[in-house]
Amino acid sequence: MSLGGLALGGSTADAAAGETPAPQHCDENGCHYPVSPASTQRYSYPDRLRKFTPDMQADLGADEMRITFMGTAFPTSPGRRAQQLMSVFVEVGPWVPDPGGGFGSATDSFVFDCGAGVIRNYGAMGVALSRMDKIFLTHLHGDHMSDLTPIYCFGPAYDRHWPLYVWGPSRSGVENPSGSPKYYADGLNDFCGHFREAMRWHTEAFSFLPTGFPGYDIPTQQDWNTPVPLQPVGGDAADDGYGLVPIELDWTTTGLDAEGNPDYRNIAYRNNGVTITHFPVVHDRRGSMGYKLEWNGLSMIYCGDTKPETISIKQAHNGGKGVNVFIHEMILPAELLAMKNLGLTFPDYSVPGFQALVAGAAAVEMSSHTPQGAFGYLLSQIDPRPDLTVVAHFPVADDTVKCAMNSVRNHFPHSRYPEFGKDIIWSTDLMVLKVKKSGNGKPARIEQLIGQVSDYTYAAPQNVHSPLSTPKYPSPTAQLDTTNLISPGPDTYCANGY
């Protein structure tokens, strides 16, 4: 198989998962740069995929799980237009018509992380804000939660007229290294309380519109099997769109018994046949987590950001059942990350600042991320193998993906596994996976598609809820100082806007 004309290679033997790792050979230039400049400016794999258009959303079967990558980027500076920051949208079927006559929705849906820029991809793919009401944060880095602001603030102005539910980690327990035994209040409850107050001006300003839905069936802790009660911060009503409900999770809980099999003592959510559990990963500061979603005999793991660690391997083993889709981050080697950030075509230590960038990238890698070679080792330890492994949080291009694939393949020297496009892929924005059971013990059927959208899409098709609550403020001008206001009239402008 090839990728954009660059051979990926592979041997003919097929070995079992968990094979003995190959002896390490650390090439000083494992990507063999310089390469063709054209290969650095494209990612051609999605061109092979069938197109997914927003009008295909309602084609969600009763036995289907759909995973859409709304953001896939590593936060390179100043960022990449092709890849927004991290967010994965998961829906389970069947599609349910909207009783109010709107567009409808999946039986249940979940947002895993919501980094900067992803709101535009949700909108372009036709996902309304009412379908984004359950957000699972892996950690509180800005590239994983910063689009919480538009999701929360504008939901009630569109079609989410009930609270936004947010899952995330408890306090880190890391001592403030100031010489005194102090600890920061850095858990999800702390974050949501401060976030609610930080958004107060916005939420009041928009409260001349109806923001609540009295007909909303308010869920309880027992309904969703959450570890804590579902209580909005800030005193908001439980049927109001500006309610913000944190579900704080004990990030130290692995959910594994002594043999490393799931014991389900780490449930974050259970409803509609969906069970979502959480587990700790190793990333930058204590308190980062991954999630596993299981539904209808299908399963998905999203590890968020992490260094290579053992808990995700055990979670992917899943009591011997394995998982269908295993989503894990990967980072470029430090010198390649520095090279890309400086716009170079090969690692050039003579360029001013290059050595310092390499050192900084190496420090980030040491604290936070999984290098591509380490990813290959981690994948070699997962048994049974995932039906599909998906690399995320990675700056994709033909050259970077080819290089990363070579690093992964070094850990499978006597096997055709993993084959690019079949066993492993590198995700990019708007990639869609349709996952269905095959039966008879065979791997799940996973169809890969790529979104085809307009860059000029307006609001996503909405659902309709009625009647709504009475607005908090009696008119659109009730909060204004109208002393200097120019009003419509025969001598000014038309009230209808034309």
Write structural notes for this entry:
The protein has a single domain (2-10, 18-331, 369-451), classed as Ribonuclease Z/Hydroxyacylglutathione hydrolase-like (Metallo-beta-lactamase, Chain A, 4-Layer Sandwich). It has 11 helices and 20 strands. The chain has helices at residues 118-124, 142-145, 148-154, 188-198, 200-205, 221-224, 310-317, 334-341, 354-368, 372-380, 398-409, and strands spanning 2-3, 6-7, 50-52, 64-71, 87-96, 105-112, 134-136, 164-169, 175-177, 181-183, 244-249, 267-271, 274-280, 289-295, 298-302, 325-329, 388-392, 424-426, 431-436, 445-451. It has a 9-stranded mixed beta sheet. Strands 12-13-14-15-16-17-18 form a 7-stranded mixed beta sheet. It is globular, with a radius of gyration of 24 Å. This is Metallo-beta-lactamase domain-containing protein.
